[in-house]
Amino acid sequence: MEDGRDRVRTHREPIFNLPAVVLAAVVVLFGIYAVQDYWPDLNVTLLREFSFVPGRFTVAFDPSAIAASLDAAQTRGAAYGEVARFFLGNGRPLWWTPITYAFLHASFLHVGFNCLWLVAFGTPVARRFGVSRFLLFCLFTAVAGALAHYVAHMADLQPVIGASAVVSGLMAAAVRFVFQPFVPVGERTESPDLNGRIPVYWQPALPLRSIVTSRPAMAFLFAWFFANLLFGLAPQLAGFAGATIAWQAHIGGFVIGLLAFRWFDPPAPDFLLDNEAA
Question: CATH homologous superfamily of domain 16-53+94-277?
Fold first, then answer.
């Protein structure tokens, strides 16, 4: 019997063959972090105006919860109380912050990790979606991450920053199509059934029910969720000692990215449809 491995030939893509939109995103994220790092006073302003602070969106309908948060911060020390009041500001929600928080980062390690995973998983997704759909998907998962964190911490006055929810959403989108049999990420396939070379990013998307029965996909999902829970409980293991990892935002971005993939997935290109018709 002919082994499926004999019917699928692969060759590797150039490692640094990045889509322009992914490269631009990396440059923007590192550029913004350079500004944050070089101008500390400006960084404080950026954090106040553009980070996501759940309590700002709660104070209007539940001021008692915010008062309790302020009291709790004050009991930890005067500095904690001042920081909480600083990020509460005038108590008005800043409606742009469920998006803009994703552009800010806390350290070089923070932005570096996010950009590394952005390159790894954003590349196949960007090639599949195209620029407009890719950017809209990133915005959508950023908002989803902020919403998930808000539901878990409605009265919290700590700022949330980082592109991790977006990166998590891109990972989830990639799960929908990269875990095909014998097709490693970053490779192309040559299928005699389609009479030509088919990029891995144009592999048919797996239905959600098929992901459950895909061993590579499920192994990735379990590893991803375990890592997020582990680092959420022990951030020092990820090199973020003293910080709080907003793992609920990561999970929110991932789950929405997995479920909303089909809303952003474009129709198959003509050359695939022509081969299918043939």
Answer: Rhomboid-like (1.20.1540.10)
Domain spans in the chain, listed from the N-terminal domain onward: 16-53+94-277
Beta bridge partners of 197: 190
Crossing angle of the two packed helices 164-178 and 108-129, in degrees rounded to 10: 40
pLDDT tens-digit series, residues 206-242:
888 888 788 888 888 888 888 777 766 666 555 555 5
Angstrom distance (rounded) from CA 160 to CA 194: 47
Closest CA to 204 of 170, 184, 178, 168: 178
At 236, which amino acid appears?
Q
CA distance 67 to 260: 37
Banded model confidence at residue 79, pLDDT cuts 50, 70, 90: confident
**Concatenated DSSP letters of 142-202:** HHHHHHHHHHH-TT--S-B--SHHHHHHHHHHHHHHH--TT--TTEEEEEGGGTEEEEGGG
d(Cα 231, Cα 239) in Å, to the nearest integer?
9
